[in-house]
Design brief:
2 copies of one chain form a homodimer. The longest helix of chain A has 24 residues, at about 125-150. In chain A, helix 3 crosses helix 5 and helix 3 (about 65-75) packs across helix 6 (about 125-150). The first copy, chain A, is about 60% helix and about 5% strand. The first copy, chain A, has a domain at about 35-150: Winged helix-like DNA-binding domain superfamily/Winged helix DNA-binding domain (Arc Repressor Mutant, subunit A, Orthogonal Bundle). Chain A is built from 8 helices and 2 strands; from the N terminus they run H-H-H-H-H-E-E-H-H-H. A two-stranded antiparallel ribbon of chain A has the order 1-2. In chain A, a hairpin with a 7-residue loop joins strand 1 and strand 2. By secondary structure, chain A is mainly alpha-helical. The structure holds a DNA duplex.
DNA sequence: CAAAATATGTCAACATGGCTGACATAAATA
DNA sequence: TATTTATGTCAGCCATGTTGACATATTTTG
């Protein structure tokens, strides 16, 4: 709120602060918020998750259904407990949307072979189709962005987003993604 | 569930798909979803917005309050209608959280000078302090990420996130951010 | 000036998707 | 056999979104 030596700003109307302008010497002591990234994350994510909404609405589904469908599609045969860990919600919350997905034939539950207490989750053909449809919508936006940026932007974005994940969680997330990738493409 | 010719994966446990491996020739025809970015956005954003939660809980506030407080702090004197546009919610929804923020002395409303129907929004000192506290929490995560990536990562992240915003909205968002920057920094 | 449009607020009712707590069942494990 | 585990379910609460209707003050317009 004071106002000294600045007013210079780059193309995005921000920065020139953390990259060098701002004090960054003291380790661990964040002085000025990185407002631009904070706000851009808000707007980017808002538009990103907004894409599938109209499609979901046609089935009377919401974002909660989308998340469940997505992870079951990506990790066929996963346990209910695994899904709870990923989504970070209670089994009661999950139960509600999962039941709807099962009742309407988007997700199937099969008894575990080794452990018959488990209800392993699979998408049906219908479920996979919907999951794919939604993912392709989001992919359009992502690839449009990559198109505007240079080559290597995919890798850069991946590295940035990966670094934004909790240190505690990062390994687990990467393992999950690697496994999903193996299963779906194997 | 079969398992053929792969298992090679890069450091992030994914990729080798869109960057080159996958078909990308047909313009406009997205064939394969960019699963990695889709999932990483989910996890990164989840952790990112999760940071402020415990602090907010001490005031019995939620993420809705956080969003309002943030934008009012960044755009002092903004109209209620502007805030509604940004947040994309109804005035009834906004009214609820805004009232709490006003009642508890985090936000003030002042009559517009030219147009006395307007209730221009300002954070109080208390509100600014809280907004800053929350932003610094998120900044820690962001700068930790920038630290893990090379120099120039701030700029790269900004460009990526900017490109992810709706074409229709991008200009408006950038204008808003530029204006906020001007106002807050003098 | 009177009429219409605008900015905001408010009441009431409802939906979604989180949550806690308690309890039930079947199957695995000690 | 006793306990633990994986899952499901009932009941109710909370936060935050929605729609629709209506009120009030103020500005703008015909």
């Amino acid at each position: 709120m004071a106002d000294i030596n600045n007013s210079a700003k780059n193309s995005a109307g921000q920065a020139a602060l953390s990259p060098d302008g701002g004090a960054e010497g003291a380790p661990g002591a964040a002085k000025a918020p990185v407002w631009d990234i904070i706000e851009l994350l808000f707007f980017a994510y808002r538009d990103f998750v907004g894409d599938p909404d109209e499609v979901l609405a046609k089935y009377a589904f919401g974002r909660a259904h989308h998340r469940v469908l997505h992870f079951v599609n990506r990790n066929p045969g996963m346990k209910v407990a695994d899904l709870l860990d990923i989504l970070n919600i209670t089994k009661q919350s999950l139960g509600r949307v999962l039941k709807q997905l099962v009742d309407q034939g988007f997700v199937e539950q099969k008894e575990g072979e080794q452990d018959r207490r488990q209800r392993l989750l699979y998408v049906t053909a219908k479920g996979e189709a919907l999951s794919l449809k939604l993912a392709l919508l989001q992919t359009e936006r992502i690839e449009r962005a990559f198109g505007q940026l240079g080559p290597g932007s995919h890798d850069t974005a991946r590295r940035f987003l990966t670094a934004m994940i909790d240190d505690d969680n990062r390994e687990g997330v990467l393992r999950l993604m690697a496994r999903a990738d193996r299963v779906k493409r194997g």
